[in-house]
Design brief:
The chain is α/β, with parallel strands linked by helices. The chain contains 15 helices and 16 strands. The longest helix has 20 residues.
């Protein structure tokens, strides 16, 4: 018998009291025996803003229900639980307890980046399919482990690169692969944001009572709580890779898809704190990286991918975008659509296509991507945004970051997933885990 906690217990100061588990409570109207060919029972691991948005998108898809939520922050978990259906939705403190529930068919891993891979591996081991947010881990080794788990346990694992499911990106890929832009020698990618004066440098302090800080740190090195480590986790070495990894996975996924490639052969990067006022975050506020790719089906002589992040000024033609430069024409592509501009003295005129989503672009696009995942869960066919695509799309950001950390150009052997002739850089391909956590498949 499962005892329901009072609201005071659920939102109390003890994370253990705030999170509770049970075995067979469901959202209203749910039955206990529905399988993947009927209704898909979902669990949400990570109840922050994006996790709840991805959950909401899945709930809009027919034949799905969210039956459990999990988070280390009691208030966030309560918000997700209420959104999913209230008290009949299970709430867990430990994701491993959620995965023990055999009535759950698939999980959404909506945590921050350093908690993407371990729940994915454990979910595969527990026989669950996984929709995991990008990027795929905070190291290349983590990403490879997630791929190996999906293959070993024969699970559907899809990464949250929702642009892969947008119609105008599919149209753009067809145009580029047709050769219409001519010989493409360079693709520029950028993320421009106005974050000035930066997140500041608050001192270390006690964590909020509703957060289990030590569990949140997890496999990363033990560190005292700092408001920026939690709220600005994208900008710390232990938890993320800056926008050049965490945002730009979306871009690299599209570039790889359009160009028919999987991995660069080398990478270099520069950057630093050139804008923000005093801050304690670690990844730079201004960053530029270059990856070189060998010959492929579109760029017969290879091409350069240039990435730029600027945190002090959003002013740009489009603030989060990419441009493919060809001998016949260029294509500027982002979430609003794309524009094709003929090269000087080449025939044709400028053409544009617009994004098909019009009401709530974020939720509509997530719903389209969620539907792809759910269809694959039912059909057992590999997703177009399969975990290996997510791994390959995360790696350019990882490689630029490694090159930035060691301060030199690095060469990459994609088959062996090793940095060539540079032991210092190669040591950064996989990060060590803090005991008792282990990266094991």
């Amino acid at each position: 018998m499962v005892t329901k906690p009072t609201r005071r217990e659920f939102l109390g100061t003890s994370a253990a009291a705030a999170a509770w588990a049970g075995s067979r409570l469901y959202a209203a109207g749910a039955s206990a025996d529905a399988g993947p060919n009927e209704t898909i029972n979902l669990g949400l691991i990570g109840c922050g803003g994006e996790g709840r948005a991805v959950m909401a998108a899945h709930m809009l898809c027919p034949g799905t229900r969210v039956v459990a939520v999990c988070d280390l922050h009691a208030t966030r978990m309560a918000q997700a639980r209420e959104q999913a259906g209230g008290e009949k939705v299970l709430a867990y403190h430990d994701f491993r307890k959620l995965l023990d529930n055999k009535d759950i068919d698939a999980v959404i891993v909506g945590t921050n980046g350093h908690w993407h891979v371990l729940p994915t591996i454990h979910a595969c081991q527990a026989g669950k399919d996984v929709y995991v947010e990008k990027p795929l881990g905070t190291s290349i080794g983590e990403g490879r482990a997630a791929v190996e788990a999906a293959r070993k346990y024969d699970r559907i694992v899809q990464i949250g690169t929702q642009q892969h499911s947008w119609p105008h990106y599919q149209q753009a890929a067809e145009i580029i692969q047709s050769g219409r832009l001519g010989e493409i020698s360079e693709v520029k990618v950028w993320d421009m944001d106005y974050m000035y004066p930066g997140p500041g440098a608050p001192p270390d302090c006690d964590p909020p009572q509703e957060l289990d800080w030590d569990f949140w740190v997890g496999p990363s090195p033990k560190k005292p709580y700092n408001p920026n480590r939690y709220a600005q986790h994208y900008w710390w070495f232990d938890y993320a890779g800056g926008w050049q990894l965490d945002w730009a996975v979306h871009h690299y996924d599209i570039v790889h898809w359009c160009m028919g490639v999987k991995a660069p052969v080398s990478a270099a990067a520069m950057g630093g704190f050139m804008c923000y006022e005093e801050t304690n975050i670690e990844w730079p506020d201004t960053f530029s990286g270059i990856c070189q790719y060998g010959p492929g089906p579109v760029a017969k002589k290879g091409f350069l991918l240039q990435y730029t992040f600027r945190g002090g000024c959003r002013r740009e033609q489009r603030s989060h975008a990419k441009c493919f430069f060809g001998t016949e024409a260029s294509m500027l592509l982002d979430r609003s659509g794309f524009t094709i501009t003929p090269e000087r003295n080449r025939p044709g005129k400028e053409e544009s296509a617009r994004n098909a989503f019009t009401t709530n672009v974020h939720i509509e696009s997530l719903q389209a991507h969620a539907q792809v995942f759910l269809d694959c869960v039912r059909s057992r066919k590999k997703s177009p945004a399969d975990v290996e695509n997510g791994h390959c799309s995360s790696n350019p950001g990882h490689l630029m970051n490694i090159a930035w950390k060691v301060g030199r150009k690095i060469r990459w052997d994609a088959d062996k997933e090793q940095v060539v002739d540079d032991p210092q850089a190669d040591a950064l391909v996989t990060k060590p885990y803090r005991a008792p956590w282990k990266l094991e498949v």
